[in-house]
Amino acid sequence: MTKPKHILLIIGGGIAAYKASELIRLIKKAGMTVRCVLTESGAQFVTPMTLAALSENEVHTTLWSLKDETEMGHIQLSREADLVVVCPATANLLAKMAGGIADDLATTLLLATDTQVMAVPAMNVRMWDHAATRRNISQLKNDGIIIMPPEEGDMACGEFGSGRLPEPEAVMTEIASLLGSPFLPVSGLPQSELGPNPLEGQPAFAPDQHRPLHGKHVLITAGPTREPIDPVRYIANRSSGRQGFAIAAAAAEAGAQVTLVAGPVHLATPAGVMRVDVETALEMEAAVEAALPANVAIMVAAVADWRADNRAEQKIKKKGEAPAPLKLTENPDILAGLAKHDRRPDLLIGFAAETEKIAEHARTKLAKKGCDWIVANDVSGDVMGGADNSVHIVTAEGNEIWERLPKPEVARRLVQKIIEEIS
Predict the structure, then answer these.
(1) Is 157 a catalytic residue?
(2) Helix (DSSP H) and strand (DSSP E) numbers for the chain
(3) pLDDT digits (tens, 9 = 90+) for 175-218
(4) Which of 36, 87, 157, 371 is catalytic?
(5) Closest CA to 207 of 145, 255, 258, 273
(6) Which residue of 139, 209, 334, 368 is surrounded by the most CB atoms within 10 Å?
(7) Domains of the chain
(8) Over the chain, what is the mean pLDDT?
(9) Is 315 annotated as a binding residue?
């Protein structure tokens, strides 16, 4: 009989702690066991008695339990779990984790564990956007911590923005994925809020290879960029971001730590993916730089080649005559820059949107950019915004053609090819 998976759930101090009760119920419903560590501040929002009743296990609250520490309880707690989940992970708790501080039971066992740790941040939007938090998140990612990004929405403090704890069903979906179980349905959120699932209807990786990218950092760009002309107008393109988001979902499903740098698109963040939203090419270049190092980089985004040289501070008014010609300046070539970077990813993949001579143009781009592969997609039809894609995988060894496929299937095949390349 297979031993059930065991979760160690660390509950930080924030209003979102109330969702831990529902998460415990879902963990139990999935046939897993769960033991809770409740921080001192977390106990201001939920009680040990509630968590004990739901988990059917003792709740641990202090490093100074004589019985537990006689048996080195914090070491035992940290080692017996198949996955350690910090939910909610407050800004304070994330800062301590990033700094290696161990001043209570939760932070001590986090420092003592060699088990995979997943953190689910929840905090005020200004705290989430603060440079210190972004720095801590980057450090934790580099340390191998899985970060499930917060959602955007109304908050208990009355503000709106990123920082909301994902719904328990979404957190449970990610837990199941990390442990190699099938995804659980996210039933608590309306589909209109979730957006399309990039992997809907697609088979998961086989059980014996469900984590083939575990320990690898995959950096992906997706979507268009917008280059402002004035406060209301911009230069952009028709990229929907769907292919890049599908690749991010497939890479996360394969166990990778995924950073997705996304241009302005209206798509749900795939489970287990760290998303960084940008608008311009310069912002995307900075976000890619901040995400390094990476084992694999997949540059799917359709970055604008040009931007306005002099952005107008006020809306340009129509005066009955043609305005002065728009002066443009060239944007940085993010892909070519990565190819020459001193922290160049081990595998660097570029995308090329073409309308004719697909393979010929892709091979020229491969040589010009200095990357390892070019994935050239034919955008002469409805690909930009459509559900399907037809691609050529161009490498130094040759050209592999994938006829028209759903974008999630293209994503899965590409991730499988990456796994074979770097394994």
Answers:
(1) yes
(2) 15, 19
(3) 887 887 544 343 333 333 334 444 444 444 443 344 789 889 99
(4) 157
(5) 255
(6) 334
(7) 6-194 (3.40.50.1950), 207-308+327-422 (3.40.50.10300)
(8) 84
(9) yes
